[in-house]
Amino acid sequence: MPDQPSSPASEPAPGPELTDDYVRKVAALSRLSLRDDQVASYREKLSGVLAYVQRIRELDLADVEPLAHVGGEVNRLDEDTPGPELPIEALKAMAPESVERFIKVPKVLGDGGGA
Amino acid sequence: MTGATPRTITPAHEIASQVSAGARSARDVTAAALREIASGDREVHAFLETFEDKALRDADAVDARIRAGEKLPLAGVPVAIKDNLCLEWGKTTCASKMLAEFRSPYTATCVRKLLDAGAVIVGKANLDEFAMGGSTEHSAFGPTRNPWDLSRVPGGSSGGSAAAVAAGFVPLSLGSDTGGSIRQPAGLCGLVGIKPTYGRVSRFGLVAFASSLDQVGPLSTCVRDSALALSVICGQDARDATSSARPVPDFAAGLDEPVRGLTLGVPRQARSDANHPAVAAEFERAIERFRGLGAKIVDIDLPMTDHGIAAYYIVAPAEASSNLARFDGIRYGTRAKLAPGEDLLTLYTRSRAEGFGPEVQRRIMLGTHVLSSGYADAYYVNALKVRRLIKRDYDRAFERGCHAVLMPPAPSPAFKLGEKLGDPLALYLEDLYTVTVNLAGLPGITVPSGSAMVEGRELPIGIQLVGPAFEESSLLRIARQYEASGAWMGRVAPRG
Fold it and tell me: What pairs with residue B240 in β-bridges?
């Protein structure tokens, strides 16, 4: 767990009362496009959950180490031997759009013109 | 009470014995299961897909292996697989529009092991989308109904896996449990269901929800069947670095030996005001039954239980928001149609908005929020600290000599469809007794205990036992001892 100090909150306190703008911002960070008519519903339901989980911020946890993972396993190194790989045809069959040996995507560079 | 003789089905271990002895063919067993599904699943909707021809061909292959002298612990046992486990045939949808047409190029390790052991996969079971939910109402393909009362939920997220067994379609299924998704539906459907210790079962081929919490486990009508299936699916796998190298015992062997000097911890928190009266009453009866078995009951305190749901609904969505980032409409899954000139970012955001249902989108946003700069310390890091304290609570109980901690699997019996659908938090609070077990990485098992008449219908009520890490053997023996002291074993829902 990296022990990074968090940057000071630049948003209004993320308490139970989320704003529509904040919901839009979190949706954008989540790579989800929300319609305007969905924002209020997400704001209301997320606010309810956040109001509940707030309780965790009230505990005195200064001396407690975070526990990210309970498994006792440690890294192990495998031999670097080639194994069976998925054929290109199998990968292409999963892709929504493909051209020849490639998966088709919209234009990535430049001004983001269409696919 | 209806007064009718309780309906039971032939358990998996008996089917395996019969098929192994040549007394019955795997084909006959499979054909019978498929007939049950065809006639009964229209109203239950436990299955998203069934594999009629393929299952019968696989059954023939099992019969051939038996004739060739192979010893198969699950010979001819029809099994339902939760549809977040990858199979090389059929679709793997996670009950999501995002993966509505997804066909996996590989099979999950735990399913592969079932097949090697002679099991026959008859179909894929319904679930809450991406295993996020406790009622199976969040399936993009419609809810599953509880076979005990079709107006009620089977629990979730492994609701299809539970209903498939409780309806008597199959004796065994696989579910996954991130915050109670095996143990809660097992309780609501009158079944045995075990979530193994984190690391016991390979997660290779399980579509990831929250990787530090997810485990696969069986659901069945009796403890022996779950023990048998667990012995098959456990073990280290090179394809899952978190799978444990611990040796896997034969969980079914020695199952009938009572645990000597059995001591059970009863947490003060298990007697929550949130408990439905029927759950509270059954819990007290269970304690008395254990006393009758000679168990020593000690009161314990798991103070962090009060913060378990808060910690869980930070940690699990945080991990989910990261895991589900892979669904971007590029390499697999739903891809939104773009108008000319629209860019790659629009493809991502629109594909995800079209592919994910509302509960999944809520959890992704919640996870993104609790991990975002400025809030991560207050939410995520604090939740991980609470996680350590939760584990410490359990460790102390076990250090005091408790073989297991006794709790209800859920605060209420099966609730009505739609009853909690509009209120995510109300549904999250149902996870009170299960999420801490995942956060601590411990094994937990639900065992049927009794039933209550609720609005004129008999609804099953279970108990949950939680043990120290990797102590599934003693957990199963305690569960077996409890099962043997009652009259529930093998029961499924009455027909019609």
Answer: B237
Closest by CA to B261, choosing from B300, B297, B296, B298, is: B296
* Shortest alpha-carbon distance between residue B106 and chain A (Å): 9
What region, left, alpha or beta, does residue B447 occupy, with left being phi > 0 and alpha being psi -120 to 50 degrees? beta
Task: Let me know the angle formed at the C-alpha of B158 by B321 and B110, rounded to the nearest 5 degrees.
Answer: 85
Q: Rounded to whole angstroms, how far apart are CA atoms A33 and A27?
A: 7
pLDDT, tens digit only, all 496 positions of chain B: 445 689 999 999 999 999 999 999 999 999 999 999 999 999 999 999 999 999 999 999 999 999 999 999 999 999 999 999 999 999 999 999 999 999 999 999 999 999 999 999 999 999 999 999 999 999 999 999 999 999 999 999 999 999 999 999 999 999 999 999 999 999 999 999 999 999 999 999 999 999 999 999 999 999 999 999 999 999 999 999 999 999 999 999 989 998 889 999 999 999 999 999 999 999 999 999 999 999 999 999 999 999 999 999 999 999 999 999 999 999 999 999 999 889 999 999 999 999 999 999 999 999 999 999 899 999 999 999 999 999 999 999 999 999 999 999 999 999 999 999 888 998 999 999 999 999 999 999 999 999 999 999 999 999 999 999 999 999 999 999 999 999 998 999 998 7
Query: Hey, is the C-beta of A23 within 8 angstroms of any chain B C-beta?
Result: yes
Who contacts B182 (Cβ-Cβ below 8 Å, separation ≥6)?
Answer: B158, B161, B175, B176, B193, B194, B195, B217, B219, B446
Residue B195: CB partners within 8 Å, gap ≥ 6? B177, B180, B182, B183, B215, B217, B437, B438, B443, B444, B445
Q: What is the pTM of this model?
A: 0.95
Mark yes or no for CB contact B381/A66 under 8 Å. yes
> Cα–chain-centroid distance for residue B373?
34
Are the CB atoms for B159 and B82 separated by under 8 Å? no
Q: A17-20: long-range contacts (C-beta < 8 A, 24 or more apart)? A: A17/A47, A18/A43, A18/A46, A18/A47, A18/A50, A19/A43
The Cα–Cα gap between B85 and B110 comes to: 9
Cis peptide before B25 (omega within 30 of 0): no
Strands B296-300 and B263-267: parallel
Compute the 3-state secondary structure of chain B and give helix, strand, coil in percent, each to the nearest 5: 40, 15, 45
The reply to whether residue B368 touches residue A50, judged by beta carbons under 8 angstroms, is: no
Cα–Cα distances in angstroms (integers) from residue B440 to residues A46, B179, B199, B369, in the given order: 26, 11, 12, 24
- Residue in B82, B179, B178 with CA at minimum distance from that of residue B121: B82
Rounded to whole angstroms, the maximal C-alpha distance in chain A is 59
CB pair distance less than 8 Å for B103 and A91: no
Q: How far apart are the CA of A63 and the nearest CA of chain B, in angstroms?
A: 9
Contact B5, B137 (CB under 8 A): no
ipTM value for the complex: 0.92
Decide if B325 touches A, using CB distance below 8 A. Answer: yes
